[in-house]
Each structure stands twice: as C-alpha cells, then as structure tokens.
Amino acid sequence: MISFLDFYTPVNINFEGVSAIVFYFTVYSLMGWLLENSYSYVTKRQFFKPNFFHGPFKPMYGFAPVILVYLIGPETNWGFVLLLCFFIPTLIEYISGALLQKFFQRQWWDYSDMPMQIHGHICLPFSLCWILLSFACLKWVHPAIVSFYGAAEILWTWIWPAIILYFIAELALSIRRHAIQALDKAESPNPIQ
C-alpha cells in the first residue's frame, strides 16, 4: 500500500475535475519544458532545445503525471506503482516519438546510441530515470501541486478555458509549422540541411 498518496484527486469527470486535470497538465508540461531545457543546458550548454510547441510546454510531461495520478491511489500496491512509473512515461515517450517522426519526418530526440533502445524513441536508461522522476513526482511534487491548485482554484476557474484554447491554438499552429517544414524538406533538392 502507498500510504503517502493522501492527496485528493477528483475521479469524476465534471467541471471541477476537468479544471483540475487542465491545471495539472499545464503545470507538468511547463515543468517538463524546464526539466528538458535544464538537462540540455547541463549536457550541451544550450538551454533552449528545439520544441514541438512554440511556447514553454512539453505535453508529453503533462500527460504522464496526470495519467499516473488518476491511476494510482492510496490503496495501490507499491510494486504496481513502480511498474506504472516505468510503463506510462515510457509508453507516452514512445508513442510521442513515433507519431512525431511519422507525421513530420523529424526525430526530436534520438536514443539510437543508447543501450536497449527501440527505434531511437525510448531506451532502458531513460525509462529507469522515469521511474525515479515519476515516483518523486507522486510522493513530493504532486501533493505540493494539489495544495497550489487549492490556493489558485478561484482564479484558475476563470482562466482555464482560455488555457485550453491556448493549447488548441498551439497544437494547430505547431502542426501547421512542422508540416510545412516537413514538406519543404521533402521537396528540397539538397538532401543535406
């Protein structure tokens, strides 16, 4: 049993539940952008890493914690929690990488030179990191985010529909931008770009 998961996560998909999901998704997408760019700065001395979105959000990092939070409860066996902390982020990373490559002929990350990798989209060393990051998120970060949501809920109630519209616009504009780039690359007579 996971006794530290004592935060309230709305299970019903109603107005308040959707509002909370959008809040968590937004916060974790921003935190993922900060995490990736910080990692890029530490490893390559370059903070701004290419991003699918134009703004400072990485949806992949928004989906994984939200799914984990809604799948895992206080009564969940710790072994099952660790398995979910491994599989959910890894699956989301693989699906994201495969879809981005299929539709835009571009690979935003490449683990081809890492051990135990699949199509360059996922690899065992990073999947093991996802376990630690996801577990830390569930144990320490999410309870703080829940408290922050409680404090900001009155304001958030007014702005979250605009945040949804922002993400829809960001997605549409990003798809358009990257589709045009993929078309230009496919039509370019010079294969080296």
Give a verbal description of the structure.
The chain is an all-alpha fold and 193 residues long. The protein has one domain (15-187). It contains four helices and two strands; from the N terminus they run H-H-H-E-E-H. The protein has helices spanning 15-44, 59-71, 78-104, 124-187, and strands at 117-118, 122-123. Strands 1-2 form a two-stranded antiparallel ribbon. Helix 2 (59-71) runs antiparallel to helix 3, helix 2 runs antiparallel to helix 4 (124-187) and helix 3 packs parallel to helix 4 (124-187).
The count of β-strands is 2
Enumerate how many helices there are, as a single number. 4
As a percent range, the share of strand residues is under 5%
* Alpha-carbon distance between the two ends: 53 Å
Rg (CA only): 18 Å
Principal-axes shape call: globular
Please state the structural category.
Answer: mainly alpha
N-to-C series of helices and strands:
HHHEEH
- What's the structural domain tally? 1
- Overall mean pLDDT stands at 91
DSSP helix fraction:
55-70%
Spatially, the strands of the biggest sheet line up as 1-2
Low-confidence stretches: none
**Major sheet:** 2 strands, antiparallel
